[in-house]
Write a structure and sequence with these properties.
This protein is α/β, with parallel strands linked by helices and 419 residues long. 63% of the residues lie in helices and 7% in strands.
């Protein structure tokens, strides 16, 4: 499975190796993640009985009886997000049938909260699944509806199946928040403009290189945005043939990003290595850093966390030097913050929580500096919110629930201001 599954799931597996009460919340962006987790845990823990219950149809009595009868097993509660919201008509008032349904939902959340001590005495794992398409403020709602059970939380995972992003060169220079990604599809939104640019390109004489070089960036950008990656890569190659060597590193970055989006990791790795060589040749340190970041992402997707770590460390070093040299350019400080985030996430995946925490703290420190200097910058506010989430998740995994709760609350405040 692509995306961050390989990064997130080892901590869950490690947690379940010890027979004890575990309350795990898993947010996912594609249902295949739910089945994949259940299959993998069944393979890893064949001795553990497991039962799957649908939050849309069960009641608390059935749920609790099943839980009590498990013997050191795993209870999967799907569609948990439905229990966190009430049904209403368009007028805002519930019908009589809706009132009955809402009572069922309230009974489950309130009784889970009231019986948390009883739950905790039974060495089962309660794993609840929440779809990322659901209410974005689900953590706040859970804290309000189930404050006592929330404090028993063992682990929160946000797992995404890799989806095609829109935009070029983002992986090295941006962070995404949970639940904010949208699948990329071939939209043909820019079809008319693409045809126009292609016609202009065909009408351009071979020796009119300067004109070609103004068309290729526009054309490849629109093709990427519309999800037409194969054609974009063809034009990237044409563009490279006409571009000066010193300008090719950036073009190769965009081409490699398109290849990653298509899932062509090995060709993308070759593309970024070539881009890195050119960036070093022409002393383009920012592009060097971007290449290291993308190459680290590729190694992580290939399952090589140690290799990813080494590349992220090189990315970090490039950004430290750039930030020292150009302290007034916020982009470099922002990218340095992201390098800390990538290092923290990799240490987290390797189970090195103390080291992960230190990197996430550095990421948060820089995020605060950027947000305070540029309070109207949405990207910086979003980045700071994400840093709080990572700190909260790490503290939670370390068993420091009070600290984790504070970071999740701070994160919620920022996201409420954003959305």
């Amino acid at each position: 499975m692509s995306g961050n599954y390989a990064e997130e799931i080892p901590l869950l597996k490690k947690l379940l190796k010890t027979t004890a009460f575990r309350f795990v919340i898993i947010r996912y962006n594609h249902y295949s993640i739910v089945t994949k987790i259940q299959e993998d845990l069944k393979t890893l823990f064949p001795e553990k009985p497991s039962i799957n219950i649908d939050g849309e149809t069960t009641n608390f009595k059935n749920l609790f009886e099943v839980y009590q009868n498990l013997d050191g097993g795993i209870l999967y509660l799907e569609n948990f997000e439905t229990l966190l919201r009430d049904q209403t008509r368009s007028t805002g008032e519930p019908s009589e049938a809706m009132k009955v349904e809402n009572a069922r939902r309230h009974a489950i959340t309130s009784m889970l909260n009231l019986r948390r001590d009883k739950l905790a005495k039974i060495p089962n794992a309660l794993i609840v699944f929440i779809a990322s398409s659901a209410e974005e403020r689900f953590m706040k709602i859970m804290m309000e509806k189930m404050p006592d059970l929330w404090s028993f939380r063992s682990l929160f995972l946000d797992i995404e199946e890799k989806i095609k992003p829109t935009g070029i060169g983002r992986s090295a220079t941006t962070e995404t928040s949970r639940g904010l990604s949208t699948p990329s599809i071939t939209t043909n939104k820019n079809a008319a403009e693409i045809r126009k640019l292609e016609q202009s390109l065909r009408a351009t004489k071979e020796d009119e290189v300067a004109l070609k070089l103004t068309i290729y960036p526009q054309l490849t950008d629109l093709l990427f945005k519309d999800g037409i990656y194969d054609k974009a890569i063809i034009y990237f190659d044409e563009w490279l043939e006409h571009a000066e060597e010193k300008n090719r590193s950036g073009i190769l970055v965009d081409k490699g990003d398109a290849q990653i989006t298509k899932g062509e990791l090995i060709p993308a790795k070759e593309t970024f290595n070539l881009s890195l060589l050119l960036a070093k040749k022409y002393k383009q340190k920012n592009k060097e850093g971007i290449c290291y970041s993308f190459l680290g992402d590729i190694q992580k997707d290939l399952g090589d966390l140690e290799g990813a770590m080494n590349l992220y460390e090189k990315y970090q070093q490039e950004l430290i030097e750039l930030t020292d040299q150009f302290p007034d350019i916020p982009l470099y400080k922002s990218n340095l913050a992201i390098s800390y985030s990538k290092l923290g996430s990799t240490h987290y995946s390797m189970g090195k929580l103390d080291k992960a925490l230190k990197f996430f703290q550095e990421r948060s420190r820089l995020g605060k500096e950027l947000y305070e200097a540029y309070p109207n910058n949405v990207s910086f506010k979003n980045g700071l919110a994400i840093s709080y989430e990572k700190l909260g998740k790490t503290h939670s995994s370390m068993g420091k629930l009070d600290k984790a709760l504070k970071f999740f609350q701070d994160e919620t405040v920022l996201f409420e201001e954003l959305y």
